[in-house]
Amino acid sequence: MRIPCPHCGARDAQEFTYLGDANPKRPDGMEATEAAMFEYVYQRDNPAGRFRELWYHGAGCHAWLVVTRDTRTHAIEAAEPAKPTKAGAAA
What we know:
The two termini are 29 Å apart. The protein is mainly beta. The strands form two sheets. A four-stranded antiparallel β-sheet has the order 3-4-5-6, with no helix packed on it. A two-stranded antiparallel sheet has the order 1-2. The protein is built from one helix and six strands. 10% of the residues lie in helices and 36% in strands. GO terms for molecular function: sarcosine oxidase activity.
């Protein structure tokens, strides 16, 4: 599988580290219930089809990416920086 890094171009998946689902939002640890923290830490979806995932390009630009991929075919629809940069900001 080749992942299209927006900074480095298409690279082999071996250059990346998979983190998981890009959608969960961490609950506020001081305000969250025990059940909410359990849900965040342990409960993950395993869908068949289109899925947004976090990948780290450790052997390249060291950027975190959000990759939209079909889990049945591994076809990648999009790859974008996990944290968008502001226009005109220093790199």
